[in-house]
Write a structure and sequence with these properties.
alpha/beta, Rossmann fold, FAD/NAD(P)-binding domain, 2 domains, six-stranded parallel β-sheet, 33% helix
C-alpha cells in the first residue's frame, strides 16, 4: 500500500499477457487497483485477433481471462491507442507503475529477392483479415490457385489450413460476413508449406498438425523423400514426446496413398526459400534450395535449386513487436530491453535509478519475444509482478491516483473509451447476430459498430 490506498497500476494491453499480470497482482495479497488500457474496443488481444476461427479449444482460454476481468479490482479502458491518445508521461500522473503488455502483431522480415512483389504477403496481415480485425482492409485477394506458405510453426499451419478450407467449412465459426465471402471466392486448390529443415525440427504442435487431416476437403501430402533424420534429430525425438509425435504423424502421411479429397495441402521439408519469382511485378513462382542434415539437427545447402509454380506466397517466419513510444527498443529482437521485466535503460549502470526506467515494466511477447504458447505468458507475468512489488516502496507516487481522474481526463480529451460493461454488451450483440444461423457469434468488424454496441453510460466498469 501507498499512503493507505491501493497500489494503482496501469497495464497497457488487455491480451492474455496483460490479464495474467493483473491476475498475478491480485493474487499477491497487496491491495491493488488496476486499469487495463487496450487499443481495441474489445479485450483479449491475441485470442480474439490472432487465433484461427476454427480453434475454439484455444479460444476457450477466454473463459479463464473473463474471470479475471470480472474482479472488482480490475477495470477495462478500451479503444485507447497508446502513443496517440495517451503517453507514458500522462500515464504516470494516474498510476504508481505501468506494465506494457502490447504483444507482437507485425511480421518478421524475410530478406530474400522478390519479397515485395504483389502476391507476397505476411502471415500476420492475413490472420488479422480472417480474424476480423477492424484496422485491416475488408477484402483479401484470394485469386491464386497454387499458394506457398513459408514456415513450419503453428501460424503457418493456421494460414495453410484456412487457405485450403472452403468458406462453408468455416461458416459455423465466428467469421464475419466479409471473410466468409472472401473464402467462398478463394481459388486455391494447392497449398504448399515449406520448411528449411527436417520433420524433427518442425515447430508444429502434434494436435495442430493432426487437425490438418480432419477436413473432408483437404488431402495432406508428405513426400517420403522428406522423412529423414540424423543423430541430432534422433536425439531430439528421444528428448521430446511432442517432437516424436509430430514425426510419427508425418511418417504415417508419407507412406499412405494419396486420396481423392479435392484440395491438396503439401508439407515440404529440406526446401529453403531463396527467391520469390516474379513477372510484371507479380508473384509467379518460388525458388528453393534443397538442404540436407549435417549430423547435428541443422542443415546445409546442397546447391540444388528447384522452381515451383506459385501465384502467391505467405511468409510465416515469426511475429515482431512494434516500437513503444518513450521506451527503449531492440529492433532485431523485437523486444523492450529488460531484466526480469524491469525496463532497462543503461546496462552499465550499477545504481537501479540509472539502470532502469522508473516504475515501468514489460511482460509477454514485448518482454521475451514471440515464442512459446499463450500459457507461457503466466510465468512472464509472475516474474514481472514480483519485481514491481519489490520496487513499490520506492515508487514516486501518482499525483492523480483516484480512478475517476483518468476517466475524466479521457472524457475531456474526447476519447470514446469502452469498458468491461461495454464488452458484455458487445458480446451479447455478436451472439445475437449469430443466433439466426445457429452460430455461437458473428464477430463485428467495423470499429464504429463495435463502439455503438459497447459504449457504456457514465463511468461504469
Amino acid at each position: 500500500m501507498i499512503d493507505a490506498r491501493p497500489l494503482r497500476i496501469g497495464i497497457v494491453g488487455a491480451g492474455p499477457a496483460g490479464i495474467y499480470a493483473a491476475d498475478a497482482l491480485m493474487k499477491s495479497g497487496v491491495p491493488v487497483s488496476i486499469d487495463l488500457i487496450e487499443r481495441m474496443p474489445a479485450p483479449f488481444g491475441l485470442i480474439r485477433y490472432g487465433v484461427a476461427p476454427d480453434h475454439p479449444r484455444i479460444k476457450g482460454i477466454v473463459t479463464a481471462l473473463h474471470k479475471v476481468l470480472d474482479k472488482p479490482q480490475v477495470r477495462l479502458l478500451g479503444n485507447i491507442d497508446y502513443g496517440t491518445d495517451i503517453d507514458a508521461t500522462t500515464l504516470r500522473r494516474f498510476y504508481d507503475a505501468v506494465i506494457f503488455s502490447t504483444g507482437a502483431d507485425a511480421d518478421r522480415a524475410l530478406p530474400i529477392p522478390g519479397i515485395g512483389l504483389a502476391g507476397s504477403y505476411g502471415a500476420a496481415d492475413f490472420v488479422s483479415w480472417y480474424d476480423g480485425h477492424p484496422d485491416v482492409p475488408r477484402a483479401w485477394p484470394l485469386t491464386a490457385a497454387k499458394v506457398a506458405v513459408l514456415g513450419v510453426g503453428n501460424v503457418a499451419l493456421d494460414v495453410a489450413r484456412v487457405l485450403a478450407k472452403t468458406g462453408e467449412e468455416l461458416l459455423p465459426t465466428e467469421i464475419p460476413p466479409n471473410v466468409y465471402a472472401g473464402l467462398q471466392a478463394n481459388r486455391a486448390m494447392e497449398v504448399h508449406v515449406f520448411g528449411r529443415r527436417g520433420p524433427a525440427q518442425a515447430k508444429f504442435t502434434p494436435l495442430e498438425l493432426r487437425e490438418l487431416d480432419h477436413s473432408p476437403t483437404i488431402e495432406v501430402i508428405v513426400d517420403p523423400a522428406d522423412i529423414d533424420y540424423d543423430a541430432g534429430s534422433q536425439d531430439a525425438r528421444r528428448g521430446s514426446k511432442q517432437i516424436d509425435m509430430v514425426c510419427n504423424t508425418l511418417e504415417q502421411w508419407a507412406i499412405r496413398d494419396v486420396g481423392a479429397r479435392p484440395r491438396k495441402l503439401f508439407l515440404h521439408f529440406f526446401e529453403s526459400p531463396t527467391e520469390i519469382l516474379g513477372a510484371d511485378g507479380r508473384v509467379v513462382g518460388l525458388r528453393t534450395e534443397r538442404t540436407e542434415l549435417d549430423g547435428t539437427g541443422n542443415v546445409k545447402g546442397t546447391g540444388v535449386s528447384k522452381d515451383w509454380d506459385m501465384q502467391a506466397v505467405y511468409r510465416a517466419v515469426g511475429y515482431l513487436s512494434q516500437h513503444i513510444p518513450q521506451l527503449p527498443f531492440d529492433p532485431v529482437a523485437g523486444t523492450v530491453p529488460n531484466e526480469a521485466g524491469r525496463v532497462l535503460i543503461d546496462a552499465a549502470a550499477t545504481d537501479p535509478a540509472g539502470r532502469y526506467l522508473p516504475a515501468t515494466y514489460v511482460t509477454g511477447w514485448i518482454k521475451r519475444g514471440p515464442v512459446g504458447l499463450i500459457g507461457h505468458t503466466k510465468g512472464d507475468a509472475n516474474e514481472t509482478v514480483a519485481c514491481l512489488l519489490d520496487d513499490a516502496p520506492g515508487f514516486a507516487r501518482a499525483v492523480a491516483p483516484d480512478p475517476d481522474a483518468v476517466t475524466q481526463w479521457l472524457t475531456g480529451q474526447g476519447i470514446p473509451f469502452t469498458t468491461w460493461a461495454g464488452w458484455y454488451r458487445l458480446d451479447a450483440y455478436e451472439r445475437a447476430l449469430g443466433e439466426p444461423q445457429q452460430r455461437e457469434r458473428v464477430k463485428v468488424v467495423e470499429r464504429h459498430e463495435m463502439l455503438a454496441a459497447s459504449r457504456s453510460a457514465g463511468l461504469s466498469r
